[in-house]
């Protein structure tokens, strides 16, 4: 359509007239305070509101974050999904919701590097600003890492889903739990054993959650790399973004030489996590997207070394 035709289109009412046509009305009389300090502050009312609440706050807060990987000094920007909460007593009607994102923005302006030290500082500061005894922060994000072909050495980016949860309590201090879900190849031992040739294999999703010891120092090692290695080193084979034919031959034969049930994966990964000195408690789950079924195969274990 050329310029002249556009000008002959029908004349629309003005935007203000359009809003009125669709129901907008003029502002009514202003009778309530507009200064914050003169406003009602319902959430800070004090009464017996029947129950203490374990967690009150906000969730599904998406925000750009920076993470580090010990192998690479430069930071990686990714998208974090946050959950912030604190408990409140039954004498308090509500929390101060604006303070969660208010503090997040302040940390963002200071270049929010999402590491355990920073999350500890954030969580204690949040409890103080909320005038509560405790607070917790949980953030999940896709973590990207370089993966090279076993023969070609051609690089590409893989990713794993990471989660960090830091809780602070005035009496007990900090509790730090980190999780990672990595993807692997698994080849079925039974299928290999009973078949003249071939064996069904599929992508497996390994989720590991670990509670870290109080003295864990993330400058010593990157927990994301340690958990990923625990999943991948026990798999039938690793997953790669770039595979040339020599690479594909290597990973195909490696999978056949390392058959694994879901039970095997969970037990072998559990053994590796058990041997990590800074892991107090761990949960391991494997979910195989079975290539010969429409359903998945699953296995899980939870183990607490402090209860031995
Ligand atoms: N506690 C609570 N607040 C809510 C909820 N939904 C919305 N809000 C609003 O969260 C807003 C921000 O609360 P506050 O952070 O206390 O706001 P404020 O009092 O202006 O700020 P402060 O001076 O920091 O306390 C209020 O306007 C609440 O109405 C809810 O379900 N619970």
UniProtKB/TrEMBL annotation:
Pfam family, one: GCHY-1
Sequence ranges of Polar residues compositional bias: 1-12
Residue segments, region Disordered: 1-33
InterPro entries registered for this protein in UniProt: GTP_cyclohydrolase_FolE2, GTP_cyclohydrolase_FolE2/MptA
Keyword Hydrolase (UniProt): yes
Record GO terms (molecular function): GTP cyclohydrolase I activity
Catalytic activity: GTP + H2O = 7,8-dihydroneopterin 3'-triphosphate + formate + H(+)
Keyword Hydrolase attributed: yes
GO biological process terms, semicolon-separated: tetrahydrofolate biosynthetic process
Tree of life domain: Bacteria
Site (May be catalytically important): 188
EC numbers for this chain: 3.5.4.16
Pathway(s) served: Cofactor biosynthesis; 7,8-dihydroneopterin triphosphate biosynthesis; 7,8-dihydroneopterin triphosphate from GTP: step 1/1
Segments crossing the lipid bilayer: none
Gene3D superfamilies reported for this sequence: Urate Oxidase
Keywords associated with the record: Hydrolase
HAMAP family xrefs: GTP_cyclohydrol_B
PANTHER family: GTP CYCLOHYDROLASE MPTA (PTHR36445:SF1)
Stated family: Belongs to the GTP cyclohydrolase IV family.
Known function: Converts GTP to 7,8-dihydroneopterin triphosphate.
Name this polypeptide is given: GTP cyclohydrolase FolE2
Organism: Pontibacillus chungwhensis BH030062
Organism lineage string: Bacteria, Bacillati, Bacillota, Bacilli, Bacillales
